[in-house]
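Review this today:
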Amino acid sequence: MSIDGFPALALNADFRPLSYYPLSLWSWQDTIKAVFLSRVTVVSEYDRIAHSPSLAIRLPSVIALKEYIPMNRQPAFTRFNVFLRDGFACQYCGDRFVTEDLTFDHVVPRSRGGRTTWANVVTACSPCNLTKGHKIPREVKMYPLRAPDRPTCNELQFNGRAFPPNYLHESWRDFLYWDTELEA
């Protein structure tokens, strides 16, 4: 029976997840390596055991870093982080989409001198993006539902909590704060 499906929830030294979206999960191989290098503390374990020729070890299900890693004060400007800031919702019509159906739109188009910055880019569905085109909001009477701004890492973490992964192990329950029921 394979042990590949046994990731460990990685927590910072303050016992908060390093990331909510995507959820900070480490492969069992990376987790075991970190345990042996004394970089993490094992908080909880699976019932599953990994064997080597000279050792048997229960697979960790939750680990905490021994040294605190401060969160970046300024998140990177990426397409994914724009989508996360905007809750994966079109900022013109409000519809929610999966990432494949989203684009990002320059509120002031680049052709009109707009720049690719937090304050000028919003999440848009393809139909709204095409409708707005190279026009500014007042020309087409399409205004973002929320003024675009630079989010903090805490805001992105908070927004990420709205999108729990498909699988959550019960040993992670005390460290994650979603309103959904956990799968066992």
Summary: Residues 179-184 have pLDDT under 50 and may be disordered. The CA atoms of residues 164 and 180 lie 8 Å apart. The radius of gyration is 21 Å.
